[in-house]
Sequence to fold (229 residues):
Amino acid sequence: LATWLTCGDVRKIRVFENEGGVTEYVGGCRILIIPAGYIGCSFWGMVFIVMSGGRKTATGAAAAFVAALLISLCYSPNRTMVYLNLGYAVVTLAFIFIEWFAFSPILTYVILLYGVFIGTYSIYDIYSGLLKRTVIGSDAHACYQECPCCLPRCVGMQWAIIAFLLQLFGVWLALALMADDCQDKSWGECVSQHGPISFAFDVPNWFEHTDFDFNNVDWNKYRPDNGGP
Fold:
């Protein structure tokens, strides 16, 4: 996706048995494509966590996941990738069938599992591969070659912070959307009232509803020259 969004062309996608993989591409913006593996996993993990809150949204996420697995098979995959993609596609389609024709809820938990696993593993992979050690040829080292002012471990630290914040945002947003008073509201209305943005804008209202009167406080007694702390 990062290659396509930056006007590049994907030639091959391969996955190896050592839990690694590589995408061969031509063109595009390299500085944006390099972190797409780690940050992209965290982003899609966040999306899966958010989409797991409802039956229809979980079904949409599962269908999009299956479509992505099948589309990626059009780019000269190796045998390992073919087995993995077809296996996950069949399993996910089976859970969609079970959800709508046999037993519910089950798909929401499957999508939640996908999201938590993808996001958590992304953070662990960043730690073990980019923070714990520096490997020549890693994505962080490639990013360092493109931008020498930032060392590989510094790049890994930035990616780890982004990945962690994405997971927190996903959990927070999912809990907001699953709140009881959001059942009859649209996503936009629910997020505007219970999401992180509303949380930031509601901070001034805390002082209006507290029993503590800030206007009648003698702030002089807290000055250091008056023996205050």
